[in-house]
Every structure is written in C-alpha cells, then in structure tokens.
Write a structure and sequence with these properties.
Layout (H helix, E strand, L loop, with lengths): L5 H6 L12 E4 L8 E5 L30 H12 L3 E4 L21 E2 L2 E2 L8 H24 L4 E8 L2 E2 L2 E2 L4 E4 L4 H13 L4 E3 L11 H10 L2 E8 H4 L2 H27 L1
Parallel strand pairs: 2-3, 2-6, 6-11, 9-10
Antiparallel strand pairs: 1-3, 4-5, 7-8, 9-11
Helix pairs in contact: 2-7, 3-5, 4-7
C-alpha cells in the first residue's frame, strides 16, 4: 500500500470527498470547562456504499473485528455528563482503521482469525482513496475538536472482546498509555477502588502504538492522553457504563483542577 504522511493526507482531499463527513459524528463541547475531549475510533460497524461483508465475510458482522461494542454509547454518555466534545467514527474499522497510522500493516486489515477478509483482499486505487477519505475525515474532525477545546486531557474510548482466539480475558478495564504512565496509574487505582478488575496496558499495550489516534492528536496540541478499554460484555450494559462514567468524570475533573492550580502557581 502506498503510504502518506498525516499532513499530506489532510491536504490531498479530493473535491468530492465530502461524502465521508457523513460517516463522522462530532459532539460539540457544551461546557468550556470540560476537563477532557473524547475520541472513539471504532464506534460503528456501518459500511459506506461500495463496501459489504457478503459471502465468506458475513461472519464478521456484529463482531469485535467490525467495531467496539458499547464504545460509542459510553463516549456519548460521558460527553453528556461532562459537557465534553467528542468525535466518533461512523464507519467500520474493517473499511479503514482510524486508530492506525497510514503506514500500518493493519490500516486495512485483510485477515481475521486466520481467515481472509474478501472485502479487503484486493484493494485497488479507487477503493483505497475512498477508505483514505474516511480516515482523513475522522482525523480532520479531531483536529477541529482539539483546536477548539481548552480541555487539558484527551481520552480514547474502546472495548475488547471477552474471549480472544480461545483465551478468556479476566481483565474488565484496561488503562492504556504510551507516555503518561503516572497518569494511567492514577486512573487504574480509581477503577480498582470502584471494584473493577483493572490493569495497565492490558489487553493491549499503548507502548506498541495501539493508542495512535488520541496520542498523535494530543502530542500536537499539548494534551495528556490515555485510552480506556472496557470489556465488551460490560460495555453493552448501561448500568456498568454509568459506573465507568462516574469514575472517569470524577478523575478527569480532579486532574484538570490540579493542572489548573499548577499553571496558576
């Protein structure tokens, strides 16, 4: 696959690529004092016109390969609670993964659980451009949100499957980080105190580039970034999401207040 820099992709938008904007949900910030901005890269399994999971790909529908179950709902609920701005991808990660850099081997995944994904097996130039239009639209929306907000924190919201390749995952909440180890440890402790089986950099490690989207935008804008992973059997439960929202709201407000005092001092 031909690779391009983020700046090049943003500036290379074709004149008719505005269709992709319909597949990005932006939640406006309602409170200028909101402590964080939210991102949700795998919020939908929607397939734009021209893409389909047919035949041998049908098994992927409704699975974690297509989207993160419950992640969009959690993102919206937390945004409402805090008056925070958010961007939710409204297209399936199987079309293109906005949580991957453009040179990633899994930007367009062609294998899942050892099975070829026919929709992605032979991506021609036209198909690639449509996929990049979606990737570009998502990241432009994040650029706008991060530019407009004064929130000091950024949080990416994801969920993960309880069983992966036959292995049962006991972890309920993962706090992922690349640079912000101390901040992640604070949030990890809060989830433990709230009764969750929380772990750091599980079931994936942010140090392996797996929090690409929020980390890249936070670095450019001078924010501190983390990613939340909630197990999907819990993420689809509104009562559990309410508990998670309570932890995140209290934590983010306290951290933002602490950072504001440090700036004033």
């Amino acid at each position: 696959m031909t690779t391009m820099s983020r700046d090049a992709v943003h500036s290379a938008a074709s004149p008719d690529a505005s269709w992709a904007d319909a597949f990005v949900e932006s939640v406006a910030e309602r409170d200028a004092a909101a402590p964080l901005v939210l991102t949700c890269e795998h919020g939908s399994e929607a397939l734009p016109f021209g893409f389909a999971l047919d035949g041998g790909d049908a098994w992927l529908r409704g699975t974690h390969w297509a989207f993160d179950l419950g992640a969009a709902e959690l993102t919206r609920e937390l945004a409402v609670r805090l008056g925070a701005g958010a961007v939710v991808a409204g297209f399936s990660r199987l079309v293109v993964d906005p949580n991957r850099p453009l040179d990633s081997d899994t930007l367009v995944r062609d294998v899942a659980e050892g099975r070829t994904i026919a929709m992605n097996a032979d991506v021609d130039a036209g198909s690639l451009e449509r996929r990049l239009a979606l990737w570009r639209a998502y990241h432009v929306a994040l650029d706008r949100l991060f530019l407009a907000s004064r929130a000091p924190l950024a949080l990416s919201v994801h969920s993960f499957t309880p069983v992966y390749e036959g292995a049962v995952r006991e972890v309920e909440v993962g706090v992922l980080f690349d640079r912000e180890e101390a901040l992640a440890a604070e949030l990890f402790a809060r989830f433990r105190e709230a009764g969750f089986e929380a772990r750091l950099n599980e079931p994936y490690s942010g140090k392996l580039g797996l929090i690409y989207s929020v980390s890249a935008h936070a670095a450019v804008s001078g924010r501190r970034a983390l990613e939340l992973e909630l197990r999907q059997d819990l993420a689809v439960d509104p009562a559990v999401r309410a508990r998670v929202c309570a932890v995140l709201a209290a934590f983010s407000r306290e951290v933002a207040a602490k950072l504001a005092r440090a700036d004033d001092g």
